[in-house]
Design goal:
This protein is mainly β. It has a single domain, classed as Neuraminidase, CATH 2.120.10.30. Helix content is about 0%, strand content about 50%. It is built from no helices and 25 strands. It has strands at about 5, 15-20, 25-30, 35-40, 45-50, 55-60, 70, 75-80, 85, 90-95, 105-110, 115-120, 130-135, 140-150, 150-155, 160-165, 170-175, 190, 200-205, 210-215, 220-225, 230-235, 240-245, 255-260, 275. The protein has a five-stranded mixed sheet with strand order 2-3-4-5-9, with no helix packed on it. The relative contact order is 0.17.
Length: about 290
């Protein structure tokens, strides 16, 4: 399975947050350190760029309206992307960590109820000041788990009854039951990752119930079966792999983000890649309001 560099995708300092928009027939991703948001049109292959006013870790489409909810350094925001590129327009919803200005949002996912689950981390990647939050449809938020050093990759079951989340610094993927009131059950270890083949970063589930994990420092994405056993991996021509998303009308295409930060000598570091995952993904979910 050969990874292809997406033409025109550019070189991200810290590419992240890749997500599929069926309504726009496009893949979106962010460059956290490069303060930008990009869109790849699957219709014509064009790439559009917007500047972001802050470090942006992720964006999730809204079910109502044409915009997004985004995780910026200063919390949850509404975000709009003007036609043709330019500067992203943001309006803050809430900052769950006003006392931690050196933290930022890092990764997130929506669940079948339209809630967003998002983690934070210290910009320095040191210490354990990060946490895991839930943003409800009424735009109220709650802290659901802590502490984290690098909160990453929530992946949520299709029935919304459980989720997987990781702390990259601990090389561990955790599993939580999601209670009816939106609280989480006890944290249990789902997979202990061998860091020799890369640390766990972004994650997503496929239609077979298998988990895909981006491997920071490992130059690969790995597929695990529902019991947490490694099945196979797809190598990529860059070491710092951050997140993947299924895309396309039948959800059989996979796009993968990477980072050039600290590995400028790698020719394709920071590129957006496309690979053939050999399976079908799950639909991308939106924020309910």
């Amino acid at each position: 399975m050969t990874a292809e560099v997406v033409a025109g995708s550019g070189r991200s300092i810290l590419g992240e947050g890749v997500t599929w928009s069926a309504s726009k027939n496009a893949v979106f991703w962010v460059d956290i350190l490069g303060l930008s948001i990009r869109r790849l049109s699957l219709a014509d292959g064009s790439v559009t760029r917007w500047d972001s006013p802050e470090r942006t870790g992720w964006l999730i489409e809204r079910a109502a309206g044409d915009g997004f909810i985004a995780g910026l350094q200063s919390g949850f925001h509404d975000l709009a992307l003007p036609d043709g590129g330019g500067v992203a327009v943001v309006a803050r919803i809430a900052d769950p960590e006003p006392d931690l200005p050196d933290n930022r949002m890092n990764d997130a996912a929506a669940d079948p109820s339209g809630r967003i689950w998002a983690g934070t981390m210290p910009v320095s990647c040191e210490g354990a000041s990060g946490a895991f939050y839930r943003l409800d449809a009424d735009r109220r938020w709650a802290k659901v788990d802590a502490p984290y050093t690098i909160a990453n990759g929530p992946a949520i079951s299709p029935d919304g009854r459980w989720l997987l989340h990781t702390d990259t610094a601990r090389d561990t993927i955790f599993r939580f039951a999601i209670n009816d009131d939106g609280s989480l059950g006890p944290r249990t270890v789902h997979i202990a990752i061998d860091s020799a083949t890369g640390h766990p970063d972004g994650m997503t589930l496929d239609a077979d119930g298998c988990l895909w994990v981006a491997r920071w420092g490992g130059g690969r994405v790995t597929r695990f079966d529902p019991d947490g056993q490694e099945m196979r991996h797809i190598p990529l021509p860059a070491s710092q792999i951050t997140r993947m998303a299924f895309a396309g009308s039948d959800l059989t295409r996979m796009f993968v983000t990477s980072a050039a930060d600290g590995v400028d000598h790698e020719e394709h570091a920071g590129a957006l890649f496309e690979v053939d995952p050999g399976c079908r993904g799950l639909p991308t979910l939106a924020f309910a309001a």
